[in-house]
Amino acid sequence: MQENNQTSANEFYLSGFKVSENLRFSLFSLLLTVYKASVCGNLLIITLVSTSKKLHTPMYYFISQLSISDILLSSDIAPNVLHILLNDGTTITFINCMAQWYFFCTAEGCECLLLTVMSYDRYVAICKPLHYISIMTGPLCVKLIVIFWLVSFSLSFIYIIIILRLKFCGPNIIDHLFCDLVPLQDIACSDTFTLKLSIYLQSFPFMVIPCIIIILSYVNIVRAILLISSNISRQKAFSTCSSHLVVVSIYYITIFSVYIVPTRGLTSDVNKILSLLYTVFTPLVNPIIYSFRNKDIRKAVQETFQKYL
Fold first, then answer.
1. What is the pLDDT of residue 5?
2. 244 near 119, Cβ under 8 Å?
3. Distance between CA 239 and CA 214 in Å, rounded?
């Protein structure tokens, strides 16, 4: 890295991928395509859920909120990553770094909570179908969504307060694609005990408890499906939750691989690729899975095109 790339105390240098120029431009083209497709796909789901009366149910309401979270996440990360790939690294001001981390943390936190309540929604729909309407009411869904966003914004702000108290002595080079918590912690020259404690404590409402609820929900769902005598009814019941199960699996596998599983044996580029999976690629996977595996959304797309074309 050249000397003019050294940063001051109020800036960070994001190094990006240390690869050849041709590979960087190939990655740029791929990520740009994925980002555009992700935004368009999630906007399509939000539009369909908002305009189609058949999709005005709790499950699709949660799916539309998941799409909002995905757009926020990918739009917070992807443009800056594209800029890094074009310029072989870039500087980012401390304020912009904190803003990027804040919205990243908010989107990730809200997505964890949304996937959790979607698992519970499928549990109620399959295991307690007669009580579904009385349990998953419209006002309850609205309250849950408001609470999820408020909790995510509030807990993310706690991280910002803690990071603002850290000292960065320089050269402030972040060997990553965006301002993630672990790289920031690595370059801090002051005590990071409070930050590590905060990570540990906040992992319970965002990671541990949601995982427990999701696992328990699907254990009961599988048990209920296996008790169904009709093969057709069993397949129909499984199809109502299979899309969500795929999304949950992809999301948590990538999250755990980055933040939970030890990464000492992995190179920095591997960690960056894993980070791209849940920040850029997963937001594209969600609308694809819900579009191709969901009959109601496919039908809503057909009706919309027939109406306006």
1. 43
2. yes
3. 17
Tokens of 263: 């990464």
d(CA 99, CA 102): 5
Beta bridge partners of 13: 91, 173
The single-letter DSSP state of residue 90 is E
Among 273, 241, 268, smallest CA distance to 254 is for: 273
Which pLDDT score is estimated for 151? 93
pLDDT the model gives residue 260: 66
Give, as one character, the DSSP assignment of residue 165.
T
Query: Which token pair is 96?
Result: 């912009």
Strands (E), 167-212: 173-174
User: Pseudo-torsion of CA 74, 80, 83, 88, nearest 10°?
Assistant: -110
> Do residues 92 and 12 make contact, with C-beta atoms less than 8 angstroms apart?
yes
Calculate the CA 81 to chain-centre distance.
16
Which amino acid is it at 174?
I
| Residues 147/152/154/158 CA torsion (nearest 10 deg) | 150
CA atoms of 166 and 289, how far apart (whole Å):
41
Residue ranges of the chain whose pLDDT lies below 50: 1-8, 265
Please tell me the distance from the alpha carbon of residue 1 to that of residue 279, in angstroms, as a whole number.
Answer: 27
**What's 54's DSSP letter?**
G
Q: What pLDDT sits at residue 1? A: 42
Quick one: which of 16, 35, 23 has its CA closest to 87?
16
